[in-house]
Amino acid sequence: MVITRFAPSPTGRLHVGNIRTALHNWMLARKSGGNFLLRIDDTDAERSKEEYVEAIRADLAWLGLTPDGEERQSERLDKYEAAFEALKAAGRVYPAYETAQELEVKRKIQLGRGLPPIYDRGALKLTDAERAAKEAEGIAPHWRFKLDHDEPIAWEDGVRGSQKFDPAQLSDPVVRRADGSWLYMLPSAVDDVDMGVTHVLRGEDHVSNTAVQIQIFTALNAAGFAAARSAAKTHPDFAHEALLVGKEGKLSKRLGSLGCDAFRDQGLEPMAIISLLARLGTSQPVEPFLDVAPLVESFDLSTFGRAPAKFDEAELLRLNTAIVHQLPFEAVRGFVPEGFTEAAWHAIRPNLEKASEVVEWWQIVTGPIEQPEFTDEDKVYLAQAAGALSWGDDPWHALTGALKESTGRKGKALFLPLRQALTGMNHGPDMGELLPLIGEEEARSRLAKAAE
Ligand code: GLU
Predict the structure, then answer these.
(1) Cα separation, 172 vs 178, whole angstroms
(2) Which pLDDT score is estimated for 240?
(3) How confident is the model at residue 249 (pLDDT cuts 50, 70, 90)?
(4) Ligand 1 near 235 CB (within 6 A)
């Protein structure tokens, strides 16, 4: 059974990039009837905030990306401790005593010599006596995972294809800070094993983490941490999607702060966001969908491109508009004003970019409205219109037909003053549908008032 996870750190709101990752993991799980887990990566107690945990849950719910389970790293510290002890016993983690400044100096020297800034494993060269001296000085170590330089790292990436890393070109990652707290690298691998995660789908900024984690998975497996996984498979399948960039093709600051709160404030439909993010950066066409099912059905990692995916807010609005034009009355029933009918929705819907704008049009239907000032000639015409108004099945076409005949007006001269008098607007919904909603008495009084 496929198990995916979305693993945000609750140090801020979700932004479009995270939402896209969440969506793709959700779709991947849904497509094969698997499970989608929400994993809150809150080992950083200082920066993690409960309000963000709640916002993440609310955002996923608003988008319809319901998780099948939720886990919190802060509640799983004993698991990390046990894994750490096992790795320590196996000689795969080691204590290091360098200060941040010392490491920075080493880095600068390497860069100055034109060398890659890889950790030199200075801590591994310490003698027992030197280590004891550090401890005696009261220096608490941080801990690094010891990469196996003899074990080349390779995986078949679901998006990027065949990937290879030389472990000697990577720094042994710090997995635990001197105060005992955890960095991302080890807990994530422990959780993926323990929760039986089968597919890790995340941004390509994690590619080098994956290289390291593949060795961590292997080491955990060797240390007996493979309970939830088949012996044949020490790690999940990996896929790294290209990053999301602004429409200019650059990493954009705005995207980093653009999230569901902004989308909701703008009155956008969750399905517009889903429609765009589901296929952005893939070879499948981005189209408006009212229902997520066909998107899930067509989800296919092999269609994901390697080039950055360009996010364009104008495209999002276009999708939203197309979706609103198809939204059934049911979808808006919850927020439309009192007395608002299905016929009104069908009349007004083609004029909306956002469903919330329906309120303004309903105000125009029910009145009062503000009419423009008319020329004397138009006033005479509108007075005639008030007289000619007769109420039947199709009062608009009856009225304009009669006026065309009696006044000889046509086109804009025939229609625009009527629209302006009846709605106060130069354009808007089909008058044939709108006029019956305005009603006979109100329509006559608007025409008469315009003629004054
Ligand atoms: N908390 C990590 C992040 O937000 C999770 C990465 C992962 O998917 O493993 O980047």
Answers:
(1) 16
(2) 98
(3) confident
(4) no
Domain coordinates in residue numbering, the chain: 331-452
Question: How many angstroms is it from 7 CA to the middle of ligand 1?
Answer: 5
State CA 354 to chain mean position distance. Answer: 19
Q: Are 428 and 364 in contact (CB under 8 A)?
A: yes
**What atom in ligand 1 is closest to the CA of residue 21?**
8
List the residue whose alpha carbon is closest to atom 7 of ligand 1. Answer: 7
φ and ψ of 77, to 5 deg? -60, -30
- Confirm if 11 and 21 have CB atoms less than 8 A apart: no
Pocket of ligand 1 contains residue 25 by CB under 6 Å: no
Query: What percentage of the chain has pLDDT greater than the value 70?
Result: 98
Torsion over CA of 289, 291, 297 and 298, rounded to 10 degrees?
A: 10
Residue 245 gets the label, from left (phi > 0), alpha (psi -120 to 50) or beta, of beta
Architecture of the domain spanning 331-452: Orthogonal Bundle (1.10)
Which residue's CA is minimally distant from atom 6 of ligand 1?
Answer: 7
**Nearest atom, ligand 1, residue 188 CA:** 9
C-alpha of residue 283 to centroid of ligand 1, in Å: 26
Question: Mutate which of 19, 37, 41 to test ligand 1's pocket (most atoms within 8 Å of Cβ)?
Answer: 41
Confidence band for 232, pLDDT divided at 50, 70 and 90? low
Q: How high is the pLDDT of residue 233?
A: 82
37 alpha carbon to ligand 1 midpoint, in Å? 13
277-288: average pLDDT? 98
Q: Which atom of ligand 1 is nearest to the CA of 9?
A: 1
Q: CA 83 to CA 85: how far, in whole Å?
A: 5
Residue type, 111: L
d(CA 117, CA 110): 6
The confidence band for 332, taking pLDDT boundaries of 50, 70 and 90, is very high
Phi, psi dihedral angles at 230 (to 5 degrees): -70, 150
- The residue whose CB lies within 8 Å of the most ligand 1 atoms, and thus the one to mutate among 43, 201, 202, is 202
DSSP 220-263: HHHTT--TTS-TT-SS-EEEEEPPEEETTSS--HHHHH--HHHH
